[in-house]
Amino acid sequence: IRKIIIAIDGYSSTGKSTVARQLAKELGYIYVDTGAMYRAVTLYAMQQGFIDENQFDKDALAKNLHLINIRFEVSSSTGLAEVFLNDVNVEKEIRTLKVSRQVSPVAAISSVRRKLVEQQQLMGKNSGIVMDGRDIGTVVFPNAELKLFMTATAKDRAERRYKELIERGEDVTYEDVLKNVVNRDHIDSTRKDSPLRKADDAIKIDNSNLTLVEQFDQILNIAKKTI
Ligand code: C5P
């Protein structure tokens, strides 16, 4: 099987990571969730007191970027890649709504993006990778052989994320989640550096009316044709 780069971008909670993970498994490729990396940097900034609901000390974060080490490690129990921030497993913590509320301003900072994009490009240098995020097809791998751009209505996306958070035992309301999804999409698509947008050569997938199985079949077909 030929090793290519598959870039999956789109709005938050469109099911990008579920599809990307399945696709990587099916093809024997590596899967990289770049959102997890921005979330880990955000968690670091929260832990250091650089950011909260009321303030954001961007300079302090920028000065401390060299102290942040992010890596993925495959869990022996689940077989899934989990995120480590300075050698601590933060997989659960980075998925909370608390982190989701602060991540987009952090991801808008150019020095943060430079650091993570460089690491992402290294991870993909041997191809055979499925990477999901916001700027993979436009900035990280503009020459990716296959680019997908996933969309769905804000309501569908908030419902998906709400169910996930409730299943994990988080105490959130649907309205909170919807607000966060809409707010993040706004910040992500209007920031100056690497705004979320569809690459010209990306295939658009609207999954509002598709089941997960239908969506996966459609994408696997496209991938197989490309490879
Ligand atoms: O994919 P996920 O929803 O976990 O991403 C969290 C946030 O990280 C996004 O809302 C966005 O602000 C940022 N992000 C980004 N570029 C990427 C991936 C994520 O700016 N490639």
From TrEMBL:
It is found in: Cytoplasm. One of its GO terms (biological process) is nucleobase-containing small molecule interconversion. It holds the Pfam family Cytidylate_kin. Its main location: cytoplasm. The keyword Calcium does not apply. ATP binds at G10, Y11, S12, S13, T14, G15, K16, S17, T18. One of its GO terms (cellular component) is cytosol. It catalyses: CMP + ATP = CDP + ADP; dCMP + ATP = dCDP + ADP. It comes from the Bacteria. Signal peptide: none annotated. Its EC number is 2.7.4.25. One of its GO terms (molecular function) is dCMP kinase activity. The keyword Transferase applies. Keywords: ATP-binding, Cytoplasm, Kinase, Nucleotide-binding, Transferase. Residues 6-224 form the Cytidylate kinase domain. PANTHER family: CYTIDYLATE KINASE, CYTIDYLATE KINASE/PANTOATE-BETA-ALANINE LIGASE. Belongs to the cytidylate kinase family. Type 1 subfamily. This is Cytidylate kinase. It comes from Aquimarina amphilecti. The lineage of its organism: Bacteria, Pseudomonadati, Bacteroidota, Flavobacteriia, Flavobacteriales. The gene is cmk.
